[in-house]
Each structure stands twice: as C-alpha cells, then as structure tokens.
Amino acid sequence: MIPRATYRLQFHAGFPFAAAIPLAPYLAQLGVSHVYASPIATARTGSAHGYDVVDPTTINPELGGEAGFRELAAALKAHGLGLILDIVPNHLAVGHADNRWWNDVLEKGESSDFAQLFDIDWRGPDPALQGKLLAPFLGAPYGEALAAGDVRLKLDEDGSFAVWAYDTHRFPIRRQDYDHILAQGLDWFDPADPEGRARLHALMDRQHWRLAWWRTAGDEINWRRFFDITTLAGVRVERSDAFELLHGLPLRLYAEGLIDGLRADHVDGLVDPGSYGRTLRNRLARLREGEHAYVVFEKVLGEGETLAPDWGVDGTTGYDFMDEVSRLLHDGAGSAALAGFWSQVSGRPASFAAEETAARGQVLLTMFGAQLIAATRAFHALARHDLATRDISRGAIERALIAMATGLPAYRTYATAAGMPDWGRPVLEQDVEAAQGLAAQWEAQTLDQIAAWLKGEGEPTLRGEAARRWQQLSAPVAAKAVEDTAFYRYGALLSRNDVGSHPARFAASIADTHAAFAARSAAFPRAMLTTATHDHKRGEDVRARLAVLSEVPQVWIEAAQRWRQLNAPLRSGADLAVDPGDELMLYQTLVGAWPLDPAERAPDGLAQLRDRVAGWQEKALREAKLRSSWAEPDGAYEQRCRAFLAALMDPARSAPFLGGVSEFVDRIAAAGALNSLSQTVLRCAAPGVPDLYQGAELWDLSLVDPDNRRPVDYAARQQALAAGRSPADLVGTWRDGRLKQAILARALKAKAGNAALAAGDYLALPAAGPRASSVLAFARRQGAQMAVVVAAVRCAEALLGKATPMPDADWWEGTCVALPAPFAGAAFENALDGARAGGPSLALEAVLRQLPVAILVAGD
Prior knowledge:
Shape: globular
Radius of gyration: 28 Å
Strand content: 5-15%
Number of helices: 31
Number of strands: 27
Strand order of the largest sheet: 16-15-14-5-2-1-18-17
Structural class: alpha/beta
C-alpha cells in the first residue's frame, strides 16, 4: 500500500481522466508505483486546479465523472499502478450559484441544515450582522452597486427568487418573502427607479445575508475564508457530521480498493489537525482491516519545526525536503555578497527577516483585521473569566497578538482546549520571545499570560475558543505574508524563495543535510519527497540553475551591473522608470528560465518566453504589494514593466543583451544541470517516497502558476524513455533533458529492486580529500543489503563554461568516501551506469567518472 514513487497529475477539463489512461504504460516504465491525482471532486466549472470544490460528494463530470475515474483506476491497475487522491478538507467554493449547501445557508440562515458546516460566527459583535452572513462580493460600495443596477431581483428557472450581483453571484430570498414579491411583481424592485431601489434594499435587509463591497471583508467578515479568498469558505471538518459529508466520496473509493491513500490539503487551516489526522486514519483502517492507507499532509514546517508524531500520518507532502535539498545546493559563502548587492541596488533590506516582519505586519492589519478582532475578543473573554486576569485589557491583548503574529516562526501553534502538546511548546516559546522584542516592554506580562492560556491555563471551553481563533489568524497571516508577499519582495537570490523554504537560512552544510535525512528516516521514513509541485514559484531546474550564482556571486553581480548599464536607455525617464529591485528579479528570472535548446532562443521561442515571463511579472508585482497589488493594481507601472520586458526580449532592440544572457546561461548551465541531477537522485534514494511532478522528468524551467501547469508533451517523453539509452551515453546531449529522465528511471528501478534503498537504515558516509565539501554520500542498509548513494554538489568551480555537467575525473583526485564495515572491500555496481567499484573506500575519480551521481548496490 505504501507508494514506491508517485507521479502528480493535474486534472482539468483540458486533461481529463481519459487523457491519463494512455500514459499508464509510460508511468510504469518510468518506475512510479502510484499516480498522485489533483482533487477530483466536482469543482467550479472550468477549474484549472480542482481546489475550488462545490460538491465533495461527486466526481467532477468535467474530468469524466465516476465512470471515467473507474476506467482510469482499472487502466492503472492493469499496469501495476495505484492511485493517491488529493482532498480538500479545509474549504469549499462559494459565491456564484453552484454550491447548493451555501445557497441553502444563504436562504435559511441559522435554520439551514448546513449552517454549522461552514465556519460562520452568527452572533458576533456587529449588531448589523446578528444572525446574518456578510456577503462581500460586490465590486463597488453597496450603494454605488445598487444605484448602478449591478444588483437585481430575479425569478430563476426553478421558480425561486434570488438577488443576483453582476449576473454572477446568486443570493436566495427567504421563502417568507415570496408572497410579497408575487403581490408586487419584480418591477416593484427595479433599482433603476429610486423608489424601486429603496424597496429592493428593504427586501435585502430582511435576508440572512448582507451584501457588501469586497473591501469590507478584511475588517468585517464573520466567516472563515481560505486565506483572503472570499470565494473559498472554511468548513468545520472538526464536526463529525461535516467530516462524513466531506469525506464520504474518498472513503468510499478507498473501501472499494480504487485508491490507496490520501493527501490532505492545507491542514493548518483546521481547528485541530492532529485530531483530524487520527480520525482519518481510524476511518480508513476500519474500511480495509490489516492494510495501511498512505496519508500525507500538505504542511509547511517552520524553521526548526517538526511534524507532530501523533497525527496518524506518514509525513508531509515534501516541501521540507525541497528546502533541505535547496539549501544543500547553495553555497553559504555567497550569501553576504548577494544580499549586499541586492540591498545596494534595490534599496530594500539585505535581511529577509526584515522583509518578513514588515510583510507580516502589513498583511495582518490590511487583510485579517476581522480575524484579529475575533481572536482578541476570545482571549479577552478568557481573561474576564478569572479574577487574576480580569484587568488585562482588550487593547493589551490585541497588541500582544499583533506582536505574536508578527514574530511567529511557524504557521501556527497547535493548542486545543486540552492545552499544548509538548512537541509544540518550543514554537510557542520562540514566538513569545520574538514578540517580546516587537512589543512594548509593558506587554511582556500579557504575552506570558497568553502563552500560559495556550499551554493549558484557564477555563477549557473559553481557552479552546481562544486557541482556535488565534490559530485561524496566525496561519493565513504567515502564508500571505511570507510566501505571497516577502518572497516577492526579497531578491537576493530567488532560488531560495519557494514554498516551504526559509530564505533567512541560505545554505546548509553536508552535516546538516545528513542530520535532516536521518531525522526523517527515524520519524517519517514514508514521507513524500518532492522538488517540484503545482504550487512552486520556480521549476526545480530553474532553482538548481540559480543556485549556481551562490557559488559565483561576483560573476552574477558583474553581469547584472553590465545589463543594468546596457539597458538604461530602455528605462530612462519617468514614463519608463522601472524599480531597480523589479529589474534585478527580472534578470534572475530570465537567467533561470532561459531555454537550453538553441531553437527556443530564436525569435519565436523568445516571444513565447517573453509571454511566460510577463505572466510571472504581473503576479510578482501584485503579490509584493509595493508598486502594485491585486487589491490596487497600478496599471501604469505594470505597463512600464511589460514594456521594459518586451524591449529586452526584442532582438531588434536588445541583441547585445539577449546575446549576453545566452552567454551567461551557457557559462553556468552545466553546473545547474549537475545540481539538478543530484537533486533527482537524492529525491529517489533518500528516506521517503519520491514524488514526480508532471513533465518534470525532463528539464523543468517553469515559473509560477499557471506556467507550471502548462500542457505536457508526453509523446516526446515516451519516445525518449522507450529508446532505453544509458545515462552515460546521454551526457553529451544533456541539453535535451533525456539524461535527467534516464537517471530518474534507473534510480527508480534500483529502488524497486533493492529493499535497502526502499526502506533501509540511513547511514551518513564521510568524505575525505580536497573535494569533500562537494559530495554528499550516504548508505541505505537493511540486513545484509546495502546501497551507497553519491551525489556531487556545488561544483561550479569545475564546470563554469564547460560543455557537459561532468567535472573532469582528475578534479575528484584524492577524494574518497569511506565504507562501513562489513562492506569495506565489497564489490559494488552503479545502478545508473553499470560501472563497478569497491575497496575499503570509494575513490570518486572512479565512481564519478561517467556521471556526477551514483547509486552503488553491493553485489558479487
């Protein structure tokens, strides 16, 4: 039941189940054991990702419905492949007119059978919202939208009455108002007539919802959203009835043997992820006794944070592994020069921590004011309940919570009505310490008291509500401030700004990486390992290439300075000015995504790249919230940036620049490719379950979504794999990506045929010699079986300007990896190229003669 390796597929109307069926033989030949499917429940029409589910009880007809899914499962099973499903327990899509449960709540209010499904505060502090749900779906202030006729009463085809906003969002009318409407007629409520407008307003004022401008949501919304997305409403999966409603479909599919496990999305949005995980595990265990369903959680771990040991899951989806490998590929010696150059040119802080703190403060107050108010209310009620704490004011609590949300080193704490588990206390203690440095001196007592409440002091019911409100504030603040703001503001080196990453910790030593791998082997040996996802901001090979700049910071700095000077005429004058930080990030993005194929550097190929980068550019500018934003797009500035990009990518205007970028990329590309090959082998051989993102078996030079969800050319990939070429034979043609695919396939084959690689103990192997800092080596051992994994890292010194990603054999001279007894002297065969090695230690000039990576299996 435990996957050997998974392959992530993004299903949508343009890539339904039927499109995946012909891929089954290819995926089996590639070496994966399971398809890892994006959400398949019925989502909003036209959804490109499936996370906007409107009906979790049915399979999306756009994908092929249940019949199509069963055909897919049968086709995969015929080739020895299973299925893992991505599910969405945190939220459902609302607004529009397609969620029947949401519509029922809008029509009936608290009396709806689904009123407790959604996380709505029906009795909050706002008198205007007592028993009502704020509906902040208007594109303009309420009075303005009403006067413009954007809000109208209509008779729907099913005979029901509803108010429609922009003919998009439906708001059902209470049944008790029908007689009045029928008696007067629809024209009586015509908003084009001032009196009709007044009557329409009076009608709406009697409903269980209150229409509002979308901008009111941050301060006044009385229901939980997914981050700040008003079309995604939080659900109360902690309730047993809600759990069964939301999980009936995947549990049924598991019971029937159609799937082998689940990936749960965004568990930090849940009240108690631990209780949820244990409930899910128990439900699955009862359905198929004696079998272990594979369950992983999408969880971003903070710096130094570990996954809870008692959640009943096999691990995370692998963002932590992605960060560990990224750190390994980066050279810490280049950090100061890169940060200094960034700060000098951009005028932004050299420290990522400074950007994160500023972003947290901004996001907290501008996007999540309503959640801050709710959390403050809950803690204040807790304070008032006890004579010892009754004088802690609401204002003091609010200031303390602001400091805690700003300094929190993780997404959230995990307090419940029962208190704080021991494993979660270090994060809380770090948070209080950081908050004390951000808050006024006299708030220290309040901070300590909040920590004491979260650890278990105080009345349990009030304490549980306060903990819930706090965690529903801190998690979205962290997500929006770090990943969706600071990552787009800080550009010292963009390869360290990706989901799950901690840019403040720029690099990791060989020893640190061994420690991380060993810890996962001990605690979560079946956790998912990924280096590319549907959420990544840069493809795995973009990051691997940009990591090279950490080894040669001066080479990058000189190139960027040269390009800035060369391109000065393209951005001179107030109507052409582009922020220097935006310019530097653009250059890094072009370097990272620059094609390796000469044909793609021709004018048509550059035009396609320009359009892809333009999509990234718009998103980057708006997420940064500095010169533009989603809430307040600065069209003039965005147009200047687009014009600058267009000029840069125009061969008629920027031939010297384009030639310079090509030369620069060619200079570092081999080192970037080596990083990628090592990353690939480590993902396959380190403790855990390797996950492959669709299409990334060849070079993945994608950017942020939707670029990373473009159609995949599977015909080319099938043809390349079917050729069966040895990786060693493909080194000379490495630019087409077949080398990466061949190494991946052989690594997975070795995993399938070698129990030690699949589940063996982890042993760090020390390297000695002049290149010891450029190799990571470890053994996986199970009983009498052992495999040794060797991966070259940070080899730019040997590869700048080289034609292939292979350091010369003599570069490794004198560097060796010691073997543990009793395998010292054993004979090994490299599963990647068939070469043999042995002796008391492994000489790297022999082991890495044909490839920069090796998986050595002990044999005769």
